[in-house]
Structures are given as structure tokens and as C-alpha cells.
Amino acid sequence: xxxxxxxxxxxxxxxxxxxxxxxxxxxxxxxxxxxxxxxxxxxxxxxxxxxxxxxxxxxxxxxxxxxxxxx
Length: 71
Ligand SMILES: [Zn+2]
Known about the structure:
This protein is mostly beta strands.
């Protein structure tokens, strides 16, 4: 299933933008650099969404998780 409209709107937003109402929080992971990655799963379309900073000195952003995200 392709990402729903709300997930499309979520992707690319800054981290202070709240998760949309169908996003269910998942585990907090760590990327290769040890940065926290907040994970969410959409109960409407099943899309994984990630909230993470692309680098230590950059602000958090929302992005699509890969299809292989296992959480
Ligand atoms: Zn969705």
C-alpha cells in the first residue's frame, strides 16, 4: 500500500511538527553515528516514519522509513 496522504504531508517536515493522528510510536533506535531515531508506524497505511537528525549539528526531520524497517 502506498503512503497515505497524512504520511506524505509528514515526510520532510521539521521535527517540531507533531506526528499525525494515525502514527503509532515504535521503539527508539540508534543510527550508525549513535544518534537517536524515533520510529513510528502508520496504522492507516502501514508506512514506517522516522524522526531523526541527518547529522549531529542539524535539526530533526521527518522522513519515510524503508519498506524493510522491522519494528
Ligand atoms: Zn499513513
